[in-house]
Amino acid sequence: MKFTAAQIAEILEGTVEGNPEVEVSELAKIEEGSEGSLTFLSNPKYTSFLYTTNASITIINNDFEIDHPVSTTLIKVKDAYKAFSTLLEYYNQIKLNKSGIEAPSFVSDTAKYGEGLYFGAFSYLGENVVIGDNVKIYPNVYIGDNVKIGNDVTIFAGVKIYSESLIGNNCTIHSGAVIGADGFGFSPGDTGEYSKVPQIGNVIIEDNVDIGAATTIDRATLGSTIIRQGVKLDNHIQIAHNVEIGDNTAIAAQTGIAGSTRIGKNCLIGGQVGIAGHLTIGDRVKIQAQSGIGRDIKDDEMLQGSPAIGYSDYNKSYIHFKNLPKTMKTINQLEKKMNNNG
Questions:
Q1: Alpha-carbon distance 289 to 287, whole Å?
Q2: Cα(58)–Cα(38) distance, integer angstroms
Q3: Catalytic, out of 174, 241, 278, 320
Q4: Are residues 280 and 141 in the same domain?
Q5: Among 169, 252, 183, 270, residue whose Cα is nearest residue 212
Q6: Which DSSP string do the residues of 127-158 spell out, in sequence order?
Q7: How far apart are CA 98 and CA 91, in angstroms?
């Protein structure tokens, strides 16, 4: 799909300097721009590329002063970075604007769906599923019985949503995510064997949640595993049965959260964090990458290490950690000297 400079300027409420009819069909970095591409300049570090770029159109700030001739057509806006972000969102909406039910696919006779549905090939829609308006379901998606999905939801290829799961409005679930698989519930027997504990709860995902690729959210043993509104989950995260994650908490990749732990609102959790089960983590907590959490955490704490301790305490302790070999050498020398003097 091609756009002219004039069309882009209209979308961004900007002004054109150069050829308003020049066309672009792709986006590029300013240093890698080629004919037919559109780029932007907002960081002064990349200013020199404005005069050498081969991009057909470049978005710049209104107050940017040109001191050399440029070959690229300019679109001047109030904030080039925000304008380019707006354009990316607009482009993404067009790219993802599919509709209709592709074949082959399976849609149960008891399933209900709203307007603007896209249902990709080789996907499955189970009994009594209810889907809202403007939902995009890409190929090879499985949606089990009695699942409910709100409006403006995008589910990318290969997602598996088990029965009874509830998904709110304006959510995005990326490829390979699994929602509602059984929690890790087993009861040890007298002779060491394990018996399966039935997992009969569900998963509730509220509005405006993003779930990364290959992230797994287990159904509850009883009740619900709950992901509150505004939560952002990175790729490869494991959330166990009966976990609850509070509003607007963001969690980075490869984090694991054990069963029945409750995490508060507006927390920031780094990558590869391990959180034990049956804990309560307060609001606005910050946990640094690769930390291990084995105790309840109060509001506003910042933690690092395994087992995690206060962030400032960790930094103070680290000075001693890294100097430990030197310190031990000094101690050994002092002990040797004392023994010789004795």
A1: 7
A2: 6
A3: 241
A4: yes
A5: 252
A6: TT-EE-SS-EE-TT-EE-TT-EE-SS-EE-TT
A7: 13
- Is 299 within a domain? yes
Whose structure tokens read 């004919």? 35
In a domain? residue 321: no
Residue 316, H or E segment: helix 311-322
> What whole-number distance in Å separates Cα of residue 27 and Cα of residue 53?
13
Distance CA 94, CA 108 (A): 29
Question: Could you give the CA distance from residue 43 to residue 89 in angstroms, rounded to a whole number?
Answer: 20
ω into residue 307 within 30 of 0, thus cis? yes
CA atoms within 13 A on the CB side of 96: 19
Same domain? 108 vs 26: no
3-state secondary structure of 155: strand
What are the Cα distances from residue 163, in Å, to 30, 129, 207?
Answer: 47, 9, 19
Q: Report yes or no on 151 lying in a domain.
A: yes
Q: In which order are the strands placed within the sheet that holds 280-281? A: 112-113, 130-131, 148-149, 166-167, 202-205, 224-227, 244-245, 262-263, 280-281
**N residues, the chain:** 342
Classified as helix, coil or strand, 196 is: strand
Position 244, amino acid: E
The low-confidence residues of the chain, meaning pLDDT below 70, are 307-309, 311, 314, 317-322, 342
- The 8-class DSSP code of residue 31 comes to G
Is 174 designated active site?
Answer: no
User: Is 319 contained in some domain?
Assistant: no
Give the model confidence (pLDDT) of 74-119 as tens digits. Answer: 999 999 999 998 888 888 777 778 889 999 999 999 999 999 999 9
Neighbours of 108 (CB within 10 A): 14
Q: Quote the CA–CA distance of 153 and 168 in Å, as a whole number.
A: 8
pTM, entire model: 0.80
Residue 60's closest CA among 94, 22, 21, 51?
Answer: 51
What's the pLDDT tens digit per position in 28-84? 999 999 999 999 999 999 999 999 999 999 999 999 988 889 999 999 999 999 999
Phi and psi dihedrals of 18, rounded to 5? 130, -150
